[in-house]
Structures are given as C-alpha cells and as structure tokens.
C-alpha cells in the first residue's frame, strides 16, 4: 500500500535528513533563486546581520554600502562610528515594524513625535539609532543634517539593491503610545528617559509581523520592483525580555513567531525566499555546538556553517569569484585616491616646513 | 643632530618642529638664551620610535629649566590644507556661526574629533615625554591660526599639487585649527602643562592669522616669533 510518505525524499525524513548527518545536516531544499557577485546586496537586522554582511563582502560579493565613512577618517574611527556594519548607518533594525518605519521615514511619509533624545548639555541621541554615535550628536543642526544624509543613503540602498537580506531579530519593542513609533532599544537604556505614560511595551504576534513585512515589501517595490528578498531568523537568543516571561520562553516565542511569519510571507511571494539560518544553528542536530559560552551568541564556526550553506545553495559563483582575488574591487579605487591625496598633502606640508627651516640654516 | 645650547645653567629649552625656527631666530635677535633645536633639523627625530625616550643630548637640555613646546606634527594641515577630492565639512558646536559647505559630505563633530585625536597622538606622546623629563615647567605654545587667503596659500603650493587641486575653504581650515587647538588645550590641562595662547594682536576679527605675520602657507614669520617670545619671557 502506498501513501504520501512511502517514497518520500530523504530530506523529508528526520532519520535520513537529520540523524544520519548530525551537525552536517543540510536543511536547504530548492532555494528559489541565485545571487551573483555582481548583485548589489543590502542587509538589515539585529547584531547577526553585520556578521553575514561581513562574510559576503569577504567572499567577494557586492555588499552595497551607500553610507560610507569619509576616506579621511581612520579605519578605527569609521568602525567606532558604525560605518560599514550595515548598508547604511541605520544600526540594528530588530522588528518588521521598525523596518517599515525606516522606509517611511526615509521617504518622508512618517515623522515621529519623539524625534531626539537629549543627554546632559552636550549629547543628542537619535532615538531610532541610539548607538550609532558613541557620544551622540554635538548639536541639533548636525543631527538634522546627518539624518538627511542618512535617509538619502537609505533611499539609495533601497532603490539600487538587487537583493535584500533581512534577518528577523526580535518581536519585542518599545513604542511611543501616541504615534506608535517603535524604538530599537527601550528609552532610558542608551539615551532618552523611560516614561510609562509615553512609552509602551509591544510584543508582536505573527499577524502583526506578516502585516508589517507585507506592507514594507509593497512599499519597497514601489521604488524597486525587481527586487529579490531573502528572509532569515537570527539564531542569537535574547539578552533580556521586556515581558514577565522567562527569557528563554520569550526568546523562543520571538523565534517561533518570526519563523511562522517567514513561512506565511514566502508562500505568497515567489520573489521572497526563506534561508534557515536559525535551524542551521539552533536545530537539535548541532547539539548546541554553535552557541558560545553564554548560550545565546553564535560562534564563528556557526557563522561559517551558515555561510557555507548559503554559498552552496544561494550563489552560483561564490567560491570561484573569491578565489580570483577580486574581493575588494569596489574599494580599490577609493583607497588609491585617498593614498594619493594623503601623499600630496604630506609632501606639500613637508616642503613648507623645509622652507622655514632653511631660514635657520638647516 | 646638533642642538643649540649656550651651556648656561637654568636656560629654558624649546622643542618643536619647523614652527620653532621662527622663535629661535627671534630669541637670537633678542639675546634671549634658549636651548634646543627644531626636531626636523636632524636626520632622525630626537626620540625613539614609541616616544618613551629622548635622545641624550635633548634630555640634557630639558633638565636645565623650563621647557617650551611648539610641537606640531601638522595634523590639521595634513587633513585640511588641500581640498579633499571628496569634499567634507563639519560643524564646530562652539562656533555655530562658522559657515558649512552645503555640498560637502558632513562628518559629525565627534567623528572629526576622534580622527584628529588619533592624528595628534604623536604630539601628545612628545608632550608627555617632555613633561616626564623636564626639570621645570612645561609650557606648550599653541600654534598660530591659518591664513584666510587661499590666493596667498596657493602661491606657496608647489609642485606636489595636481592642477585640479584646490585649497580647502578658509572656514574648514579654521574649524580644523580650532578643533586641534581645543584637543591640545584639553590634553595640556589634564597633564599639568601650561599654555601660551597665540598673541591676540596677530589675529584678525574672524580668527585668521593677519597677513603681517605669515612666512609661508602654513608658517608664521619672525615678527610673530617676537610676539610669542614676549609671552615666553613671562614664564622665565
């Protein structure tokens, strides 16, 4: 007698698809499209997104950065001020609602009431990217101009990318009760002041996440209709929960909601695919080996495993391109221009110093 | 290197780069005893690579008395004299009146500050070493502000520049100067180093060096050196 499982492919059966391979289990089946090294890739999400972006860049993929540090800034300064971690300096975008809000703010369709946070006399914090500047902004004019520059970079990223990778991070967020603006961090944690009459805790459910993400994709396609989208769920667990639940339960809820939301979205949209980074790291086949000592962060080996499978299933030419030594094709021109400028500036200042020293008989 | 030394005890020393030349000339004219030599005169800097030891000859001079410093490794000129191919600008929060180039990439003040601090690390290192070696007070002379005129600067801009190179706007150069100066003042105050400010008479209403006091695009002249020398005398 036959039934739907009698001649099922190995990947459909736990014994053959998981137990047999243990940590080497590969859960990706028929990824719907491929990306090439020339595709412009934009990433967003929580702290896991920059790890993926970094690996893509290192492998020679075209990680699009539209808000670059000025070449004058030393690398250490650029890193400190969060240039290059994400495609633009939007910082962590934990929730689908925050992502939708970012798009609407960048296009002037939403202006939150709670626009800036002040800390003492000399620190102004952007409520929507509170950690982007270690010491905040120095004055209101700078804040506004920097934000205009930032939104232009966000628009450029959204309009010119070929592939958007969004890694869902959290369902929990804090919002302004009046206009519903959501913050990546609770007011008071890294700026601002928490006020229960102004701020409310929100923990999104599947319906809300799907609705926000669907709206985001609809509005994004108004400016970029041929876009391909990859959704993933961050395997990084919560540091803390704003709910009264145990943090393990709260974290699991969030992952489950996002996993279900991804399924709902990808089933209706052929240009959106799900990449199972969560399963690769947190599935029982790994026996927890990809979690760090804190049991929530992902080790480098875990990121390696995700990217190995990503390159295998989502790209055609990844390995060949990286091997050809073309990893830094975009940056080379910028670097050499900067080196020439620095050399000319150094040569000029030295010759002016020499001229003065001649007066002393040097 | 051959440090200038009169061999007299309790003679103050001056350490610094090319900018110290004008003060040595002014001191010689005035018969003011001053030990030292511009660092740039010798084949090698008078300190080791990690700036933890001075050359023994310099060390000897620093142990005579007060030590004046006009150390300036040129961070602001390196970063802002020639206009960068990707123009940039920043807002100085204490001087919101200074114009901002609307077509330039805005760099936040704190990012500029961090970048300048890193470029000034060598200056800070030399000052720290001087403070640890000096027998008397260490007094840092804040260097003169920039010239406003791009035309004058261009006449001193020699063969190193490309035809397309431009001099940065005077406002950007002034802001860079003020930022560097504030970082140096902050450092000196934190480390017990006294400060000599630029003579007010040499500075115009907008904050630039008056044209009576320049020697080339980035240096003051001996007339300026004489003004600084008068301020130095107050410390000896």
Report on this model:
The complex is a heterodimer of chains A (362) and B (236). Chain A has 362 residues and is of the alpha/beta class. Chain A has one domain. In chain A, helix 4 crosses helix 5, helix 4 packs parallel to helix 6 and helix 6 packs across helix 7. Chain A is globular. Chain A starts with 13 loop residues before the first helix and ends with a helix. About 4% of the residues of chain A have low confidence. Chain B has 236 residues and is of the alpha/beta class. Chain B is built from eight helices and nine strands. Chain B has a five-stranded parallel β-sheet with strand order 2-1-3-6-7, sandwiched between helices. Chain B starts with 12 loop residues before the first strand and ends with a helix. The model of chain B has no long low-confidence stretch (mean pLDDT 86). The chains are: A alpha/beta (362), B alpha/beta (236). Chains A and B meet through helix 3, helix 5 and helix 11 of A and helix 1, helix 3, strand 5 and helix 4 of B.
Low-pLDDT segments of chain A: 318-323, 325-334
Total number of helical segments of chain B? Answer: 8
pLDDT average of chain B, as an integer? Answer: 86
Q: Portion of residues in helices of chain A?
A: 40-55%
Number of domains of chain A: 1
Main pleated-sheet profile of chain A:
5 strands, parallel
Query: Which structural class fits the helix and strand makeup of chain B?
Result: alpha/beta
The tally of beta strands of chain A, per DSSP, is: 10
**Main sheet summary of chain B:** 5 strands, parallel
Q: What is the end-to-end distance of chain A?
A: 101 Å
Quaternary status: heterodimer
Mean pLDDT over all positions of chain A? 89
Radius of gyration of chain A: 23 Å
Strand content of chain A: 5-15%
Low-confidence stretches of chain B: none
Largest interface: A-B, 42 and 49 residues
Termini of chain B, distance in Å? Answer: 26 Å
